[in-house]
Amino acid sequence: MLATVRRNQGSPAPPPTASARILATGTPRLPAAFPSTIGSPSKRKPPPPSAGRQRGARTPSPDPLQSRLPHVQLPESPSRATLRAIPASPSKRKGKQVERPADELPRILPDHLHPLLERQKRAILKSLQHPPEIDEIEVYGEDYPPTNNAAYEQLSELLTGSVVRGEGNSCMLIGPSGSGKTQIVEKAIAQLPSKPIVVRLSGHAQHNDRLAIREIAWQLAQQTGQSFLPNDPEDAEDEEQSAPAPAEQQAEGDASLDADLDVDADGDDDENPFVERAPALPPAENARLAITLPPPAHLLALISMIPTLPRPTIIVLDGFDLFATHARQALLYCLLDTAQACRTGTGSGSGMAVVGVTARVDTINLLEKRVKSRFSGRMIRTACPAKMEHWVQLAQAVLGASVVSEGAKEGADEKEWGRMWAKAVEAFAGSEDVVEALKETYALTRDFQMFRRIMTRLALDLSPSSPFPTIEKLDSATKSQRCPPRLAPLDTLPYPAVCLLIASVHASASGHDTFTFEMLHDAFKTQVRTSQSAPVQVAGGGVGMAFERLVDLRVFVPAAAAAGSVAKEFALHRSGVDRFEVKKAVDVIGQLSLKRWFTKA
Ligand SMILES: Nc1ncnc2c1ncn2[C@@H]1O[C@H](COP(=O)(O)OP(=O)(O)OP(=O)(O)O)[C@@H](O)[C@H]1O
Ligand SMILES: [Mg+2]
C-alpha cells in the first residue's frame, strides 16, 4: 500500500491545474485510466477526495485504453459531479450511470432531462386543476364518514331522481369556501345518464331578480335553441317587432317588472348586455335573440314553464344566500314553488332540480316563511380535508403526477426521470419540516385554493439548477401567500432608533404606556451615565432624528392629537411594537451593551 502511494506521489504528475483542466473538459480518458492502471482495486475502495489529482497523475499511461474510450464517455452534463464514484470496470459503468441518480439526486439537472422537468411542471399544474382523489378511508379510518363522498352520493341521487324519474327536487349544498361544493355539483351533473338542461346562476353576478331571470332566459334558449313561450305566439311576435328598439323595450320592461316584483325602485338599472349587442349580430342571430329575451313582464312566467321543456332542467344557484336578499325573494319563491309542484305531480313533463350552493350556514334562516315552506329542506354538507395527513397525501399525489400520458410508452429518459422524481417527492413529503410547514398553513386555513396557490408557486420555482421540491421552496411559496409584515424589520433600524425602542420598553415596564421624546431621551442619557455597559453616546441630533424616523415608520404612534401649544419633544406617543419584537431585534443585532440594557427592563 505504502509502495503504491509512494509510486503515485512520485510519478510525473502534471500540475494540479492541468488535471483540473482535463477534468473540466470532460475528456473520457480519466475515468478509464483510473480502474485499469492500478493493480489492486481493494486499495481504492474509499474514493479519495482528491481523486482528480490521482487520476491526473495516472494519465501518462493510458495508451492501452485508447481503443476503449468511446464506451466510457461521460455525459457532458453538469450532473457529472454526482457520478463521482466511478465503478471499477468500464463495462459496468454505463448501467451505473443510469442508476446512479436514483440513489443520489443530482443537484443540477442533466441536459437531457430538462424537457422532462418542464413536462413534470405541466403535469403538476394540470393535476392541481383536477386534484387526484385521496383514499379517505386510509387517512381517516373506517369510522370517519368521508363527508364529500357522502355529499356527492346524496346529490347524485337527488339529481338522478329529477332527470330519470321526472321529479321536482330542491336542496342546498353548504360548506366552507374551497371545500369542493362546485366540484361536487359539476361531478354529479356530469355522471347523469342523460344530458339535462343546466342553468348556472351566481348571486354575485345576478344581483337582482331581473338580471337573474334574463340570464335564465338566455341560458335556456342557448341550450334548447327554441323559444320557450310556445303557447303565446303573440308575445313572441310583439317581441320580434320591438327588437329593433331595445332601449324602449328596456324602459317599458323595467317599469312593468318593477311594478310586479318591486325589484329596482330607481329603475335606471344597467342595460342588458345581450340586447345591446343584438344589432351588431347577423340577422338570423338577431331574430333568435329577440325570441330569447321576451319582455321582462313575461319573464317570470318562464319559470313555471321550465317543467314543460323537452329535457329535465337543473338550476344551480351559487351564492344562494345572496338570492335571499333579493326583493321579496320572488325568484326563489317561483323556482321552489315550481319544483315543488313538479314533485307533487301537478307539474307535467320533465323533472326539475334547484340546487342552492352557499358557504353561509344560516342561509335557511334567511328564507321567508312562504319560500321556506316550498323548499324541501334537504341540506347537504361538504367539508375541507380535516386531517394533516390528507394535505400531505394530497401534496404527494399532486407532485407525483406522471409525465407519461396514459397508454403511452415510457422511454429510457422518462424512466430515469420517473425514478429520480419519485425519490425526490418521497423525500419531500416525508420531511418533518415540510409537514410542519403544511401544518402551519393548515392551522390558518383549510381552503384548497390556498393549497393550490402554494403548490403552483412551488412548481413554477423548479428549474434545472434546482429541479426538486425542497422545504425552502415551500417556505418561500407559503410566504408569498401571507400578508407582508406591517413594519420594516426592526433589526435594520439605525443604532439610535434601537436605543429609543429599548427605552420605550423600559418606559412601558415602569407603567408608562405613553411617552414623550424627552422621557426616552432622558432614559437613554441616564443609561449612558450610570452603566458601565452603557450604549455608546450618540452625537447630538441623532436621537431626535431617530425618534422622527420611528414615528414616520409608525413604530411610534401619536397617542394624542397634535396641539400647537405642545412642543414636539413633549408630544405623547405610544409604541406600536411589543417587547418580544424588540427583544428579537436586539438579539439579531447582537450588541452586548444593547442586550444588557434591554434585559434590565
Ligand atoms: N377534499 C378535496 N380534495 C381535493 N380537492 C379538493 C377538495 N376540496 C376541494 N378541492 C378542490 O378545490 C377546488 C375548489 O373547490 P370548489 O371550487 O368546488 O370549492 P367551493 O366550495 O365551490 O368554493 P367557493 O365557496 O369558494 O366557491 C377544486 O378544484 C376542487 O377540486
Ligand atoms: Mg364554488
Automatic annotation (TrEMBL):
<dbReference type="InterPro" id="IPR003593">
    <property type="entry name" value="AAA+_ATPase"/>
</dbReference>
<dbReference type="GO" id="GO:0006270">
    <property type="term" value="P:DNA replication initiation"/>
</dbReference>
<dbReference type="GO" id="GO:0005664">
    <property type="term" value="C:nuclear origin of replication recognition complex"/>
</dbReference>
<dbReference type="InterPro" id="IPR041664">
    <property type="entry name" value="AAA_16"/>
</dbReference>
<protein>
    <recommendedName>
        <fullName>Origin recognition complex subunit 4</fullName>
    </recommendedName>
</protein>
<dbReference type="GO" id="GO:0003688">
    <property type="term" value="F:DNA replication origin binding"/>
</dbReference>
<keyword id="KW-0539">Nucleus</keyword>
<dbReference type="InterPro" id="IPR016527">
    <property type="entry name" value="ORC4"/>
</dbReference>
<feature type="compositionally biased region" description="Polar residues">
    <location>
        <begin position="1"/>
        <end position="11"/>
    </location>
</feature>
<dbReference type="InterPro" id="IPR032705">
    <property type="entry name" value="ORC4_C"/>
</dbReference>
<dbReference type="InterPro" id="IPR027417">
    <property type="entry name" value="P-loop_NTPase"/>
</dbReference>
<comment type="similarity">
    <text>Belongs to the ORC4 family.</text>
</comment>
<dbReference type="Pfam" id="PF14629">
    <property type="entry name" value="ORC4_C"/>
</dbReference>
<keyword id="KW-0238">DNA-binding</keyword>
<keyword id="KW-0235">DNA replication</keyword>
<feature type="compositionally biased region" description="Low complexity">
    <location>
        <begin position="242"/>
        <end position="254"/>
    </location>
</feature>
<dbReference type="Pfam" id="PF13191">
    <property type="entry name" value="AAA_16"/>
</dbReference>
<feature type="compositionally biased region" description="Acidic residues">
    <location>
        <begin position="232"/>
        <end position="241"/>
    </location>
</feature>
<feature type="compositionally biased region" description="Acidic residues">
    <location>
        <begin position="255"/>
        <end position="273"/>
    </location>
</feature>
<feature type="domain" description="AAA+ ATPase">
    <location>
        <begin position="167"/>
        <end position="385"/>
    </location>
</feature>
<feature type="region of interest" description="Disordered">
    <location>
        <begin position="1"/>
        <end position="104"/>
    </location>
</feature>
<feature type="region of interest" description="Disordered">
    <location>
        <begin position="226"/>
        <end position="281"/>
    </location>
</feature>
